[in-house]
Backbone:
């Protein structure tokens, strides 16, 4: 087991990981702006109105953000689980969810600003009836003020954090270590255990040179042909009746 990690180090590692994941939301936002279709609009006296009666582009933009957010959340959980293995558990779960939320916010703000300057310029200076495109934005997600003060994200902005939390929890549930971290001492004990003895020729485990092959050779010698074995010594016959016994002493 490793040495206990101090609270300050845990907080520093967690904050750095959340910051890195949040910065990775910038390329995620660029990718979202590249794949999400822009919405055609028409300049009018009241601003920009949809160029179609029921445009599908805003729905497609929400769908692309949701798919990319879910994929990013799964990759976030994978990275936190394998790279921060010493902090597996509640700390890793919080880091993964917070990193997914930060990445979602950054991706939304970066993606919606791609082409936004050109759109605002045309909206301010173009004559009425001019057709142009509005950059992708979210309709099923955003930030609203709780009690008029606290900003709270909602909708598909939460999908990266949701996917990261669910994936990390599944990894924790399937882990074969109670501490969620590899335990090298158990592996070393398993490696140090002696391997099982191989079965002998007669199918009995542990039959070595003295109990297996040696016994087989002894059986082969004792089970040889009868001519090769020496004959037992002859027993003397008893004396005939009336025959004088040999002198004693």
Residues:
């Amino acid at each position: 087991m490793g040495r206990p990690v101090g609270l300050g180090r845990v907080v520093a590692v967690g904050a750095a990981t959340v910051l890195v994941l949040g910065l990775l939301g910038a390329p995620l936002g660029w990718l979202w702006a590249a794949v999400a279709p822009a919405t055609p609009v028409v300049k009018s006296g009241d601003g920009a109105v949809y160029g179609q009666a029921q445009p599908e582009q805003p729905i497609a933009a929400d769908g692309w953000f949701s798919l990319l957010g879910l994929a990013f959340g799964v990759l976030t959980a994978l990275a936190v689980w394998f790279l921060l293995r010493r902090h597996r558990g509640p700390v890793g779960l919080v880091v993964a969810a917070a990193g997914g939320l930060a990445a979602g916010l950054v991706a939304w703000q970066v993606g919606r600003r791609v082409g936004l300057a050109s759109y605002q310029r045309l909206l301010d200076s173009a004559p009425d009836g001019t057709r142009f495109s509005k950059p992708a934005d979210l309709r099923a997600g955003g930030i609203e003020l709780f009690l008029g003060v606290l900003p709270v994200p909602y909708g598909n902005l939460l999908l990266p954090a949701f996917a990261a939390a669910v994936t990390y929890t599944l990894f924790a549930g399937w882990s074969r270590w109670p501490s969620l971290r590899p335990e090298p001492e158990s592996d070393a004990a398993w490696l140090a255990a002696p391997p099982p003895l191989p079965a002998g020729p007669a199918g009995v485990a542990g039959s070595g040179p003295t109990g297996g092959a040696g016994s087989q050779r002894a059986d082969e010698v004792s089970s040889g042909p009868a001519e090769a074995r020496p004959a037992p010594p002859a027993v003397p016959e008893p004396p005939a009746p009336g025959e004088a016994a040999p002198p004693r002493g």
